[in-house]
Each structure stands twice: as C-alpha cells, then as structure tokens.
What we know:
Strand content: 5-15%
Number of helices: 15
Distance between the termini: 8 Å
Amino acid sequence: MTAVESPIVASKLGYGISDADQHFYEAPDSILKYLEPEHRHAFRWIEMDGKKRLLLNDRLYVLIPNPTYDPVGRPGSMVEYFRGENPDGRTLKEIAGPPMALDPAFRYREPRLKVLDAQGVDLCVMLPTQALGLEEQLWEDPPATVACVRALNRWTQEQWSWNIDNRVLVTGVVTLIDPLEAERELARLIAEGCRVVGMRPGPVKAPGVNRSPGDPVYDRVWAMAAEAGVVIGMHAADTPYTSYLTAWGEGGRWYGHKVSSLAEIMGIYTERTIYDTMAAFVAHGVFDRHPRLKVAVLELGAGWVPELFRRLKVAYGKAPQNFAHDPVQSLADHVWVMPFYEDNLREVIRHLPVERLVYGSDWPHPEGLADPQDYVADLAEFTPKEQRLIMRDNLRSLAFG
Length: 401
C-alpha cells in the first residue's frame, strides 16, 4: 500500500506534516452504544455534584477531570508546564486557563478534516482518548474489559472508519488481558482495514496472573500484526505502575495531570513504563520471533532511549548467549519513537537513528501543541533534511513502507 502525494502544505515548512499523535474525544455514548447488557455494570454514567461522572467497575474515573470533554482544556494550553517553564510556581490550572466548549472537530470526522487542512497535516495517526484509562480500572473483570474495548472500536469505526484516503489512519484498540480475545479483536480490526492498533505499555495484569507482552501466549497477536503490516502503537496510558507509588507510601491512582513530584521524577507514567516494556520485548524475544513487527512509541517521549541502549549493551556484553540477535540493533530495527518537545534529541540520536523519530502534536489535548507546525522550532539544530524526516518522511515510511 502506498500513500498518494497530497497538495496540502504546512506554511512554515513548505511540505505537508505527518503527525503520529492526534486524538479525538469520544462521545458519552460511544461505549454504551455497543456494550452488551451483561457488561453495562462496568461502565456507568452518574450525576455527582451536578456533574456527569463516569464509573468504571464502580470506581470513579479520575484520569480526565471531565470525561464528557465538554468543556475541555484548550489545545496547547499546558505547554509552559510541560516545558518546565514555570519559575513562579503557578498551578497547572492557572497555566492552562479556563476550558473551552467542545469543538465538533475534536470529536467528529468531517470538521476535523478541515482542521487538518488548515494545519498542513496530510498524514496522521488518530487515536482515542477515553481508552487511555479503561484497562487499569477494569482489569479485575477481563470479560468487561474486552467488551468495553470492543464497543469503543465499533463506535470508532462507525464515526471515523479506519483509513481515510491513506491520510488519516484511525487507531483501533486491543487489550492483551485475554490472549484469545486479543487475537479475535485484532483479526476483526485487520479485516476491517485498520492499519494502527493501540495498546498500553507495561505488564499485562489479569486476576491471578501477570505476564510480559513477550510471553509466547501472545505470539499469535504479534504474528498477525506483522503479517498484515499493522503498526503497534504503544501509547501513554494508565498502567499497573501506580503500584510503585503505593510501595513508596503514596496514593496508587493516577489523577491525570495531578502528578506527585516522586511520580514525575520516577517517570511512572511515561519513560519508566515504556523503558521496561521495550526491555521485555527485546529480552523475551518478541522481535526475534517476529522480525517484521513494527512498534511505534507514542506520547511517551524519547528520554528513556539512551539508558535502555546502555543497559542492552551491558546485558549483551555479559551474556550474548541469551540473545538471538544484538539487542541494540533489534530495538533500532523495529521501534519508532515520538519524542516529547522537551526532549534532548541530539542525545537520543546518538543511540537511535534519526530515521526512527516520528513527530506527534497530541492535538487537541492541552499538553500538546496548539499548532502542529510549531515543533519545527525545536528542531533548529537539525538540518532541513533531518527536519523533514522527523516532521514528515519517517511516519510515512513506517505506515506505508
């Protein structure tokens, strides 16, 4: 499958942008529309203090302050915070300012396509938002977890379709909590034309069992993805890593952007989870058994790359017999990484080829960029050719190469 060149051009760049991380906000009935009656106890809307709130498995969903997304934070309103430009110690609420009414382009296909035209984006990966917090609150009920993910996928396909003219690659979601159900859902997504499948990083947690994604029980999932040329998108999400904070005497729930200093320093919700996940993919032989598998690391930054490459070299030097291939080369061959705008990319490309960096704006999330073109200013130390690789060509190679 090849992408058709588009006349859409980003005015600041002179070519169209390839954006690996755009999102839509789900409608309140997105999951309920297709959720089977026997699982509706696990996903319920309630009224609390005059507001519509979401209960997952009888626990309040707190990852996102307003899960109806109306009102919602303005695109790019938290950039100062995430760049660490807050010398006066303002609260995140003060930095972000008042929320805005939901723009139809944040949720629906046709108005969003017009926004993409204005942004100069001629290829993007479009991801859901609510899915980022589902699995961690539903894991104690695997059938309900599977059912909610399946229902969300059906709503997404209905509202967006999976592939809009090789320009918008809409992400389906697969949970690994039940290996056989993961195979079934992935097979359905592939049959419907889905090209990018989203998963959360971290170990797979189910009642009475913890597994690595490199457990051979998932080999059929990775083989199906590799055979179909589907990209596995590992995206930031709520994970079992909140248990680290519990072990250190802090609360064990993620309240979205309300992150403790310890969680921030440990990288509990970003670098730590993907570092360990990619270590498991390599050490447990996923890429050895599935040499055509492609993984994109989305909205988890690139700060983890130098240390993981260092540890892979150490492990390989000590016990090369434990690896079928050089683990450093294996990671570089199979993984594409979306950096944060605050990352030191010169340090990253000392380890990972620039051809493995993809750009993502996170639009319209408040922690992302208000204008996807603005990231080119963070690439000032790169040559125009390298800038184009990151801003355009690398994602096209990943998706269509």
